[in-house]
Amino acid sequence: MRLKDKVALITGAGSGIGKEAALLFASEGARVAAVDINPVAAGQTAQTIRAAGGDAIALTADVSKAADCEAMISAAESAYGMLNVLFNNAGISHADDDDAIATSEVVWDLTFAVNVKGVFLGCKYGVPALRRAGGGSIINTASFVAILGAATPQLAYTASKGAVLSMSRELAAIHARENIRVNALCPGPLYTELLMKYLNTDEKKQRRLVHIPMGRFGQAKEIAYAALYLASDESSFVTGTEFLVDGGITAAYTTPL
Ligand SMILES: NC(=O)c1ccc[n+]([C@@H]2O[C@H](COP(=O)([O-])OP(=O)(O)OC[C@H]3O[C@@H](n4cnc5c(N)ncnc54)[C@H](O)[C@@H]3O)[C@@H](O)[C@H]2O)c1
After folding, report:
1. Which atom of ligand 1 is nearest to the CA of 114?
2. pTM for the complete prediction?
3. What is the SS3 assignment for 186?
C-alpha cells in the first residue's frame, strides 16, 4: 500500500487523469476527496472507489472560484482529519482556443481562470492544510506544451500550462523547508476526451502522432501511475520538477517512420 494512511484531494476527478488517479490512489490505501465541477461525475468516481472497498467522498467545486476551493479543502479535512496530498489536476482546453488573432479574450480568460487561477487557489487554501498535517505533496498538472511549442495552435492553453510549470517551481522553492513538495506533472498527448475533442479529425490526430517516438497516445492510467509516485513518500527528495510522462515527445527531433 503505497499511500497507506494518506488523505488525497484530486481535482478533475470525474474524468480522465483525475479519475484514474482517484481509483489508483484509493487502491493504494489513500482516503480520497474526489472533486469535480460535475457533481455526477465526481459522485461516480467516489462510488466506484467505495464499491471496490476503498474510502472516498465526492465534492463539487469550480476550481476557478475561491469560495469553492476553500470549501473543498475544508470538507476534505473535516471528513478525514487531515490532508497530505493535493493534486491540482482540473483543466480545460477550449475548442475555440487558437492563435493570437483568432483566440477571443473570453476564451483566454476562461482558460486562465481554470488552468492557472485554479492551481493558485488550490494552493492558497491547500498549503495551510498540508502545513497542519506536517507537510505533504502537491502535484500540479501542466503539460508537455509548457516545454514545446506546437504549430497547431492553442495559445491560451499553452501559455496557461507554462504558468502552471513556473508557478510549481516557485512554490517548490518557497515551501521546501516545510516538508511540502511541489511538482508539475507534464503529460504528453493522451487518448482522453479532452484531447480527442480538440484533435477532432484524423488529419489533426496524425499530425500529433507523427511527433511521438512511441507512435501512440498515452493512457490516463499511465499518468496516474506517475502521480502516484509523486504523491507517495517514494519521491521524498523530488520537488520542483517538470515531471514528463510523454512517450518521448520532448526528447525527439525526428521519430521512426
Ligand atoms: N488529455 C491530454 O492529452 C492532456 C495532456 C497534457 C495535460 N493534460 C491536462 O491534464 C488534466 C486533466 O485532463 P484530462 O485529459 O484528464 O481531461 P478530462 O476532460 O478527461 O477531465 C477533466 C475534468 O476536470 C473537470 N473540470 C473542468 N473544469 C473544472 C473546474 N473549473 N473545476 C473543477 N473541475 C473541472 C471536468 O469536469 C473533468 O471531469 C488537465 O489539466 C489537462 O490540461 C491533458
Report:
1. 31
2. 0.97
3. strand
Q: Where are the domains of the chain?
A: 7-189+219-245
Check if the beta carbon of residue 219 is closer than 8 Å to that of residue 156.
Answer: no
Does the structural domain 7-189+219-245 have CATH classification 3.40.50.720?
yes
State yes or no: pLDDT of 153 exceeds 90: yes
> Coil, helix or strand for 58?
strand
Q: Rounded distance, CA 38 to CA 117, Å?
A: 19
Most ligand 1 atoms within 8 A of CB, residue of 11, 15, 40 to mutate: 15
- Whether the pLDDT of residue 101 is over 90: the answer is yes
In the chain, the percentage of residues whose pLDDT exceeds 90 is 89
Residues 6+ away with beta carbon under 8 Å from 138: 85, 86, 87, 88, 122, 123, 126, 127, 130, 168, 171, 180, 181, 182, 183
Clarify whether 253 is annotated catalytic: no
Residue-wise pLDDT tens digits, 168-219: 999 999 999 999 999 999 999 999 877 788 788 888 888 889 999 999 999 9
Q: Which residue has the cell 519521491?
A: 235
Q: In what order do the strands lie in the sheet with 180-187?
A: 55-60, 31-36, 7-11, 85-88, 136-141, 180-187, 242-245
User: By three-state DSSP, how is residue 228 classified?
Assistant: helix
Q: Any bridge partners for residue 137, and if so which?
A: 85, 181
